[in-house]
Amino acid sequence: MRQPRMLYDLSDYLLANYCNLFSYNQLKNDLELNSVANVKKFCGYLSEPYLFFYLPRYSSKVKIQRKSPQKAYVVDNGFIRTRSFELSPNDDRLLENLVFIELLRRNYRPGLELFYYRTRNNKEVDFVCRQGNRVTTLIQVCFDVSSVRTLKRETGSLLEAGSELGCDHLQVLTWDRESEMAEQNHRIDILPAWKWLLGLGGR
User: Domains in the chain and their CATH numbers?
Assistant: First the structure.
């Protein structure tokens, strides 16, 4: 009965840490599992029925991509609310998970057309969307950007990533904010997530 228990513990861990970075070594140590090979196997078991998805880091170097932590996402926000041990809703992560699921619905495949990104200054961008060898869209998800500091942080990451990846289609998806910004020869569309989900607004 040990393996079903380990699988259950792993699913609980990933549910508690959805939208967060993880590595197989980290999971092995945190859950006191006996090998990294088993962790990979159990993560595969959880992804086969499409309960969990794993998003790799975008890099032109395959070695960096393979060695970098991944991000975990869950098939449905309702599943998170039912099973997660969060004491209060995490609006940022729930919105990010929702955007990820919609990107899957739009046929972006993790590790092929869909990634997350770290800039040279270690700033994170939630989603890199690619067509062929070209990065077409960078998306940052933030529930509330009413704070000037928060907005600057989110747009700063996008601008840095846009310059590094040669992408000028930059979006910040929020709960209810809508506007446009022009900075450093880039335009950033700030959209309510509901508009983006319906294919309205932006470019």
Answer: 1-88 (1.10.10.10), 90-203 (3.40.1350)
